[in-house]
């Protein structure tokens, strides 16, 4: 049997399956999706089996055998292997990069090399101290360890390897192993043990105590716990083991990040009429078992989560599994609680705040069918379930569903693809759907589909219990200044905050920090501190007084004197959450503020603790960045304030208005979700902007209509699709000439297909190459950057075209090579 293996070398030359012979003893174990170690170019590399065949494509004499099988159960399933191929085609990355994205980091094995003393090694063939040491290690040791111990014998080792006096082995070691704990078991029935305990001599009182404790506990116990509870020792337990009363075994442990937490079980709520209609539509689709994508457009507080929960329940009832994606940032304890509360042990949770070990164990619960629901951020879309019935993407408009490093996939598109493989339903949920999704859901269904398809748009325009959406006040901050108010709080917001403090109700304050940074500038000459390697300002960190580059990590101490004019008026600028916090303390003495931003949430579980404190009403104000805008559901929040709405409006990003509208709508939705009515204040310098005015009136339709007009006029999605290609090199001249060559080759290829047509031509197929031009960040890590933007429309396999155009540029000698990075459907073209 031949295994076709993708080896873990992410280069173009090796981006294809290689043939290996499957040794007889592995034949019944190796499957598509198996992880193996294979010899490759003199090393052993990790690889994935992507195909099996009876005969090899190469000369059988040149075939090498698979050297090891790394897991008894393949970590990947055939559908994921196929999906990886699709990912690599669509997002122009190597197959192995796509495969690696699907498994937990713990399984990204590293080769380790061992040396073994050959039995037939002759005396004197190796330096004696080396041979002796190896013998003392049982004849084998890690090559690394050997060389570290005897650096002077490196030559001897090499010649030993050549003559065969020592033999080299390589093996793939996982970064992390399954955690095992020594566990104590009783070997007999209760009566037998009790009798034996009675018979123990008086001096073995401790042993008796241990036995009786085990009986009281009534089940296996971890050795450590047993010793701690009985104040005994390992030797006591070992003695009982010797008497055959106890047995000690290593038992696999699941690292459960939620261990010891009680989740109050919840029952399905009676659905409102609006929820019921949507629920029934979803359930019909799940039952049909055919791929189907729906957009659940429900205003904030309309009860989307309850619909998800009941739909999942239905899906599980069919014996199928469900995946729920939520943005990393809103994977809050509240969200986890709602799922654990409904489905208990059947849920695996995957987010980036888990340790590698915890994540690995959650993943194993999925792979071993212990759970039926996976809830997690973006990468949970690769959960290795075998029969998926339903995929839910909550807050589908969130940009965090797009991965910014290779493979640069969008989880939404992967979900649709995976659903097609499984015949699953996809529910995209949001109060503010992305314009692309909204347009797709409104597109007329292809005619001729049997029975006529049901509409893909499921609206829930009302809040649960008929609660109103909160009224929104827009405050023009220019007017405030004109009237002599220099504070960062408008009079209105100040007044309402005072009122909430008096009533003991809670407020959420959002500091929109997108596009904001704290940078160092000289007030005398205008000098700003720049990164010496990148074309970007350094960001100032107040705590450490260090300036740091966000692209390359370069850090330096903030100057006290301007390096350019020696003036001492060098300051940092920008409004951070810290400044707002200080201001709050000044204006409202005694106010209790919880600040939530990157600085206060770095510690593990910090996010969770802060939200719990707020939920327990230990603070009056929750102040934060984007983190506070989503998913929170606190009954005593009756005021939401946005400190400055427009910081994100002025970014040179075609999605700036959409992002602002979404953020404002989401954060406004945190107010008045329960019995107490809410109010919202938005402070802005551009009160007339349509993103602000439509958010003020909770008018998604009006926003979309206006936004679509802009997108159409400028030629942006959803009227076309984008691909961003960034090229970089140390030499500007080389880069610019390679960039030109690439762009013209791409144009030629498009021309040959007859699709090189400008977007505004009105033809159904169009493909336009813009650039190359210098990237907005024109230098990064000492490399110059150029970019091409491709806009296209119609059924064009643009990825294939780009891969073809790239081929001659990426196959050359690596040193002179210009680096290319392809971003399909980019979120930002900055
Ligand atoms: N059928 C129902 N009966 C009573 N209460 C409900 C029902 N459905 C949902 N709720 C409650 O309504 C509140 C809002 O629901 P939920 O948080 O699911 O809204 P959402 O649509 O997800 O909102 P957002 O998009 O703002 O996060 C929650 O407290 C929830 O428990
Ligand atoms: Zn200066
Ligand atoms: Zn830098």
UniProtKB/TrEMBL annotation:
It catalyses: ATP + H2O = ADP + phosphate + H(+); Couples ATP hydrolysis with the unwinding of duplex DNA by translocating in the 3'-5' direction. SMART domains: DEXDc (SM00487), HELICc (SM00490). Pfam families: DEAD, Helicase_C, PriA_3primeBD, PriA_C, Zn_ribbon_PriA. It comes from the Bacteria. The keyword ATP-binding applies. InterPro entries: DEAD/DEAH_box_helicase_dom, Helicase_ATP-bd, Helicase_C-like, P-loop_NTPase, PriA, PriA_3primeBD, PriA_3primeBD_sf, PriA_C. Belongs to the helicase family. PriA subfamily. This is Replication restart protein PriA.
């Amino acid at each position: 049997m031949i295994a076709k293996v993708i080896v873990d070398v992410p280069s173009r030359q090796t981006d294809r399956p290689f043939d290996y012979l499957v040794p007889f003893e592995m034949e019944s174990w190796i499957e598509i999706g198996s992880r193996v170690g294979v010899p490759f170019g003199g090393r052993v590399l990790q690889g994935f089996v992507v195909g099996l065949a009876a005969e090899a494509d190469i000369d059988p004499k040149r075939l090498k055998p698979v050297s090891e099988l790394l897991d008894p159960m393949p970590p990947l399933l055939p559908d994921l292997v196929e999906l990886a191929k699709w990912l690599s085609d669509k997002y122009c990355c190597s197959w192995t990069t796509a495969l690696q994205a699907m498994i937990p980091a713990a399984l990204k094995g590293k080769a380790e090399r061992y040396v073994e003393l050959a039995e037939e090694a002759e005396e004197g063939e190796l330096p004696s101290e080396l041979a002796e040491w190896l013998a003392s290690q049982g004849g084998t040791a890690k090559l690394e360890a050997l060389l570290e111990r005897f650096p002077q014998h490196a030559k001897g080792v090499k010649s030993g390897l050549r003559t065969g006096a020592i033999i080299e082995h390589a093996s793939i070691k996982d970064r992390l192993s399954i955690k095992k704990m020594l566990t104590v078991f009783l070997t007999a029935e209760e009566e037998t043990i009790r009798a034996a305990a009675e018979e123990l001599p008086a001096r073995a009182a401790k042993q008796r105590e241990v036995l009786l404790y085990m009986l009281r506990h009534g089940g296996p116990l971890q050795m450590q716990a047993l010793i701690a509870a009985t104040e005994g020792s390992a030797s006591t337990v070992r003695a009982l083991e010797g008497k055959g009363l106890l047995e000690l075994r290593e038992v696999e442990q699941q690292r459960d990040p939620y261990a010891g937490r009680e989740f109050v079980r919840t029952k399905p709520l009676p659905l409102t009429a609006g929820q019921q209609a949507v629920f029934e539509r979803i359930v019909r689709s799940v039952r049909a078992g055919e791929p189907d994508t729906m957009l659940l457009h429900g205003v904030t507080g309309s009860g989307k989560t309850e619909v998800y929960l009941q739909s999942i329940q239905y899906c599980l009832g069919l014996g199928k599994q469900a995946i729920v994606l939520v943005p990393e940032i809103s994977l809050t304890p509240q969200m986890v609680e709602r799922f654990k509360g409904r489905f208990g042990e059947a849920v695996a949770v995957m987010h980036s705040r888990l340790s590698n070990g915890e994540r690995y164990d959650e993943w194993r619960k999925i792979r071993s069918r212990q759970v039926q629901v996976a809830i997690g951020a973006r990468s949970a879309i690769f959960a290795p379930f075998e029969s998926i019935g339903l995929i839910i993407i909550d807050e589908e408009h969130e940009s965090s569903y797009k991965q910014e490093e290779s493979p640069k996939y969008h989880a939404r598109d992967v979900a649709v693809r995976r659903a097609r493989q499984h015949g699953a339903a996809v529910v995209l949920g949001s109060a503010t759907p992305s314009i692309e999704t909204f347009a797709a859901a409104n597109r007329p269904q292809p005619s001729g589909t049997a029975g006529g398809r049901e509409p893909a748009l499921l609206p829930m325009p009302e809040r649960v219990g008929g609660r109103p959406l909160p009224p929104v006040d827009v405050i023009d901050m220019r007017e405030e200044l004109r009237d002599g108010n220099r504070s960062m709080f408008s009079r209105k917001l100040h007044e309402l905050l005072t009122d909430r403090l008096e009533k003991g109700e809670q407020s959420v304050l959002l500091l929109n920090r997108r596009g904001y940074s704290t940078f160092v500038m000289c007030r005398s000459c205008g000098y700003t501190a720049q990164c010496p390697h990148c074309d970007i300002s350094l960001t100032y960190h107040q705590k450490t007084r260090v300036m740091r580059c966000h692209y390359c990590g370069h850090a330096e101490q903030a100057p006290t004197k301007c390096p350019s004019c020696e003036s001492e008026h060098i300051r940092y600028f920008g409004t951070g959450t810290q400044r707002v916090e200080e201001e709050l303390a000044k204006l409202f003495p005694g106010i209790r503020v919880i600040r939530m931003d990157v600085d206060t949430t770095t510690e593990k579980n910090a996010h969770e603790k802060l939200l719990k404190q707020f939920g327990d009403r230990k603070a009056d104000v929750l102040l934060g960045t984007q983190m506070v805008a989503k998913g929170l559901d606190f009954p005593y929040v009756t005021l939401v304030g946005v400190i400055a709405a427009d910081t994100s409006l002025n970014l040179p990003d075609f999605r700036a208005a959409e992002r602002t509208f979404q953020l404002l709508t989401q954060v406004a939705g945190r107010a008045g979700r329960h019995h107490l009515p809410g109010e919202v204040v938005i402070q802005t310098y551009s009160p007339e902007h349509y993103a602000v005015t439509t958010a003020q009136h909770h008018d998604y339709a009006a926003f979309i209509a206006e936004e679509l007009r802009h997108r159409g006029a400028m030629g942006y999605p959803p009227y076309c699709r984008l691909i961003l290609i960034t090229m970089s090199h140390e030499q500007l001249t080389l880069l610019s000439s390679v960039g030109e060559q690439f762009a013209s080759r791409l144009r030629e290829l498009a021309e040959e297909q007859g699709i090189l047509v400008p977007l505004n031509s009105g033809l159904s197929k169009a493909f336009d190459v813009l650039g190359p031009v210098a990237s907005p960040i024109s230098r990064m890590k000492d490399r110059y950057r150029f970019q091409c933007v491709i806009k296209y429309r119609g059924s064009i396999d643009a990825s294939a075209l780009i891969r073809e155009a790239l081929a001659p540029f990426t196959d050359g000698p690596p040193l002179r090579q210009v680096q290319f990075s392809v971003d399909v459907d980019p979120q930002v073209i900055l």
